[in-house]
Amino acid sequence: MNPYPALKNAAGPEIRETPVGIQILVMMGLATLACAVATVAAEDRRRPHVLARGIYGGVPTQLFDRGKTLEDFGVNAIWMGAGGLSEERIALLRKHGARVYAEFNTMHDAAYLKEHPDAAPVGTDGKVSPPPDGWQGVCPTHAAYRRYRMDAFRNALTDFDIDGIWLDYHHSHAAWEQAVPNMPDTCFCGRCLMMFQREAGVPLPDGTGAERAAYILKSKKAEWVRWRCGVFTDWVREFREILDKARPQALLGTFHCPWSDADYAGARLEKLNIDLKAQAKYLDVFSIMPYHARFGHHTDPEWIYRQARWLGEYLGITGKPGERHKIWPIVQLSDWGENVPTDQVRSVLDYGTRAPSSGVMIFAWGRLHESWEKVEEMGRFYRSIR
User: Fold this and answer.
1) Is the pLDDT of residue 42 over 90?
2) What pTM was computed for the model?
């Protein structure tokens, strides 16, 4: 006699009951599968490849004033300006278990021009180029200015116990950090023209500075761009030499324009003179600056990931452990230009931490702490991916 009689389905057709032991095994299997799915989902939220969960903009004292710790918000790295470094600030951040990184201004120390006007970039008209939208650059071939910045770079590394230092504003005289970039052609000072002829092997015709600039841009632009990129790359080479002697265990990073070769007709190379492939020989970390709201992508935070993915393909960086080079974007959470709403914080950080990115930092604490809801949302995301 069959101990498992037929059952009637509510819908009508007859079904056969399976043995109790088999039912139990099936139920256990389903439970195991459900548990596995839940585990995979949790692991998808965790991102062990993300080494840095950072804040850019100095010591977040407003967080401490609320009785909170960096750990409470999942933060393990802080970036601050080299001029704001102090033993007391570093000790406080170390107490909270954070790595400390400095931001170093290379080509944007406008105060230097007050006593050294000959360091101002010269435009295509042969005259000093006005600061585009207020962003004042400096001529990259001015030897005294270069020594001045190298000395300051060395001092930051020798005077303070930092884990790394990031180059900032390391590009030509331009205002690209806005929705509509302003990038004049520079620098056509007598010093640059002389060095171009000698180092690039390109003789220039006699004439005024404006006439020579016109000739270069019409007939020798490729050679000019190649030489200009080389000048900025050589600065990076020297920064690397200093770091290797002063604090060899520290990382050398760079904050740089997030554009691909196709964006703005190749302006990253041709206008800003940022040759990432050449600079990669000396750098450890590339921190693209995909400020989606500021740059006209406020409804498309996925743009952050697309730019990082392009950079990874361009430089051969995958985000896997053990790679020498790393991509750590600095992403916009504070309002600058278009606002970043609170409900966009998670997606911004999500796109910023997808491989090939292996670290991220938020821009910028000075404004972000005024919107505490976004700070809380940042903390929830950082904690979820630890």
Assistant:
1) no
2) 0.89
What is the separation of C-alpha 258 from the centre of its chain, rounded to a whole number of angstroms?
8
Residue 54 lies in a domain: no
Structural domain includes residue 44? no
Q: What percent of the chain has a predicted confidence (pLDDT) above 70?
A: 89
**Same domain (yes/no): 183, 237:** yes
Q: What one-character-per-residue DSSP string does 26-50 give?
A: HHHHHHHHHHHHHHHHHHHH--TT-
| Alpha-helix runs per DSSP H in 184-317 | 190-200, 209-219, 221-246, 267-270, 276-279, 302-315
Residue 231 makes CB contacts below 8 A (sequence gap 6+) with 140, 141, 273
- The answer for residues whose C-beta is within 8 angstroms of residue 205's C-beta and 6 or more apart is 211, 212, 215
Instruction: Give the pLDDT confidence score for residue 45 in this predicted structure.
Output: 76
5 lies in some domain: yes
Q: Are residue 269 and residue 290 in the same domain, yes or no?
A: no
- Report the distance separating Cα 147 and Cα 239, nearest Å: 11
- List, as one string, the DSSP characters of 2-26: -SS--EE-TTS-EEPPPPHHHHHHH
- Closest-CA residue to 153 (of 211, 117, 107): 107
Q: Which of 228, 253, 283 is the last residue of a domain?
A: 283
Same domain? 1 vs 67: no
How would you label 89-101 residue by residue, b for 16+ Cβ within 10 Å and e otherwise? bbebbeebebbbb
Are 160 and 275 contained in the same domain?
Answer: yes
Question: Structural domain of residue 123, as residue ranges?
Answer: 59-283
- Could you tell me if 264 and 363 lie in one domain? no
Which of 13-22, 44-53, 204-213 has the lowest average pLDDT? 13-22
Percent of the chain surpassing pLDDT 90: 88
Domain membership flag for residue 51: no
The pair of structure tokens assigned to 337 is: 């230009």
How many separate domains does the chain show? 3
- pLDDT, tens digit, 9 for 90 and up, residues 304-362: 999 999 999 999 999 999 999 999 999 999 999 889 999 999 999 999 999 999 999 99
Give the side-chain half-sphere CA count within 13 A for 70: 21
Cis peptide preceding 132, ω within 30 of 0: no
Residue 200 has pLDDT above 70, yes or no: yes
